[in-house]
Design goal:
Elements (H helix, E strand, L loop, with lengths): L13 E7 L9 E6 L2 H12 L3 E6 L16 E12 L5 E18 L5 E6 L8 H19 L6 H9 L3 H11 L4 H9 L3 H53 L2 H17 L4 H16 L6 H14 L12 H11 L4 H17 L6 E5 L6 H12 L3 E5 L6 H5 L12 H9 L5 E5 L12 H9 L7 E2 L6 E2 L5 E6 L7 H5 L1 E5 L5 H19 L7 E3 L1 H11 L6 H19 L6 E3 L4 H5 L14 E2 L1 E8 L2 E13 L4 E4 L4 H16 L10 H4 E6 L13 H13 L2 E2 L3 E3 L2 E2 L5 E2 L4 H10 L4 E5 L11 H6 L1 E5 L2 H8 L8 H5 L1
Parallel strand pairs: 1-3, 7-12, 7-13, 8-9, 9-12, 14-15, 17-22, 19-20, 22-25, 25-26
Antiparallel strand pairs: 1-6, 2-5, 3-4, 4-5, 5-6, 10-11, 16-21, 17-18, 18-20, 23-24
The protein binds adenosine-5'-diphosphate.
The site of adenosine-5'-diphosphate has 17 residues, from helix 12, helix 17 and helix 19.
Length: 788
Amino acid sequence: MSTIDESPTEIPDVLPLIPLRDLVLFPNLVVPLFVGREKSILALEESLRGDHLVALVLQREPETQDPGENDIYPVGCVGTVLQELKLPDGTAKALVEGVVRVRVLEYVTSEPYLQVRVERIEEELASDVETQALMRALLADFEKAAELGKPIPQEVLIAAGAIEEPGRLADFVAFHLNLKSDEKQAILEAAKPIARLEQASMFLRQELQILELGSKIQNRVKESLNASQREYFLREQMKAIQQELGTFDETQQELDEYREKIVAAKMPEGVEAKAVKELGRLEKMPQAAAETGVIRTYLDWLVGVPWAVEDDEKLDLIEARRILDEDHYGLEKVKERILEYLAVHKLTDTMRGPILCFVGPPGVGKTSIGKSIARSLGRKFIRMSLGGVRDEAEIRGHRRTYVGALPGRIIQSISTAGTRNPVFMMDEIDKVGVDFRGDPTAALLEALDPEQNDSFQDHYLEVPFDLSDVMFITTANMLDTIPPALQDRMEVIHFPGYTEDEKLHIARQYLVPKQLREHGLKTTKLEITDEALSEIVRRYTREAGVRGLERQIASICRQVARRVVEGHGRKTRVTQRTVHTYLGPARFSYGIAEESDEVGTATGLVWTEVGGDVISIEATTMAGKGELILTGQLGDVMRESAQAAVSYIRAHVSDWDIDPAFNEKLDLHIHVPAAATPKDGPSAGITMATAIASALMGCPIRREVAMTGEITLRGHVLPIGGLKEKLLAAHRAGIKTVLIPKENVRDLDLLPPHVRDEVEIVPVERMDEVLARALVAPCRPNARKTAK
Ligand code: ADP
């Protein structure tokens, strides 16, 4: 490498020439130069041997390998070689500083390298206003180009500002712009500074236009990016902030979870849209806002509802029959009807059809039949009690605007079940109340009506739910209090209650084995004899169903289990005589309530929620003014029925030996014992009339006669409900004769044959027949009088 310190200002006439492919050298500027061609290397070496000067001129076409006179522009720049570095491949790298413009006058030789005679082009000086203005404009544009993103270093800008000669400034700017070689050449060739400034200015303007367009395009791209990705960036920022605050995990993760759950829930379209909308609201809300809790609860419910989850149904009638039999003794009629129902369901393949309603006293197997149905269908079983429900919102939910609002019980139960096609048992539909809070029956109707329950509206959910694949079964203790609109939609199946015999079977085959199992006892440890079971049925329970019986058996099992644990190894045998050691003294007497025939005490049969029962109705007279006193928690219907009975007797005093003026001298008191239990219904009408007549005549009533029937003012006996239960109760109580309304005779086929054999059933039409049968012989009204 060789260097020189001073650039000579004297230019010799003849100089070696290096043609440049794509570079234009300007005076006072330094460029690195790659020299590859052999001729050029020789020229460079020649210059280094002398005064380090060389003519550098652009060739017209960069591709020309060995350019001659015509291939090279006529104007170039003489440069001083400041440094030279030989590279191993024979080429060289040189640092050259421009000295002065020259015009090539003549090519002296072309071998072994180009040599030219040159003429110096003198730099003109100009300082007129126009030039100054042009310089400023050029500088301003130059800076602007830098602003718009042209890679011009700061020191270049500063250096440009310091240049005073207009020509040099033009050169400087042209050199630093990305101009094409021929454009730079044009500036090099322009001798007058002002022309050069204009040229440079023009090129710079073009460059600026390109730069501006570029930034415009960039902005537009940025904008469109913004539109789609703004949210993403914001989210990311929010995430970062939340991470800083340590709140990230709960919120973001939670939102993502909701998003996943919504997809997983496979909701119907409208519901999903709703869920997504609510999630959007939640997202936008500040986490501290009170409402976020409300929205979260709502979303929890929404994703928790089994929109698309269902159990595969298998329905094989033979298998269903087997399961029903396996779980239940007897109940033949019930099972038949259920199988018919299932058969229809199988043929039509929908749940459309009346809802089953199981009516009967407690403990007769309504729930457990429901469970067996679910089992035989392979569906889930859920239960919900309607007892005491008075508010529509309990069924249908509260609107979300209420504090602490929740979905109604139907949606809650379905959510708990986790499938959209469970067997859904609604208990105590007869105990749904109506009051100021609204009528729950309307909501129930909508849920139970196959015509409209495919879009059941829950106030809380706000979106419809399809209940049409749910198999609803309702239960009730009595039919009377079920709202008629609901009754219309239901197919009633009566569970009448069991006879003693049936209870014995149920106990032996089902309840005892079940309780043994539940208490972890083997049959080798405990035996309860049939007589003992009978004793329990007769003296320790008084019920239509078998719940009390099951409880008593469980009680025995508990005590035996304890003995086993205490080391009592032998088998325990519970017999009729030892029952009381487990269960204490008998609670009920078996047989007729009254010991002897009494005046003013009639035996009635009632149908309570716990099945049929035998009651005594007492009437007595005392000195007074015709007042009627009724006690024993009688309901309105029963009170009215008592008044009807009194009016009937007053209208017929002459038929019997009754003082026609009794009403002016006596008060009448009717009492129905078991005073703590509310009683109602018209079916005690004839019993009350009998008690009153007996009291007024002073004539005893036969204790083995029981009766049931509604009374009219004209003395007609009207039919009543629950005849089978009542007759079973009478049979249990050892009653010999039962007077029943004639119109109830058709219900008698429901009665087990042995009950019909053991109880004399007398259909009656009129009150005088009742009295003729019930009163002890001497008091009977004579036929002649009755005929009147
Ligand atoms: P309900 O729903 O009518 O009040 P449950 O279904 O709860 O009555 O029945 C009470 C108990 O009696 C249950 O353990 C049930 O299994 C049993 N049970 C009732 N009827 C029968 C029957 N026919 N055969 C076998 N067990 C029965």
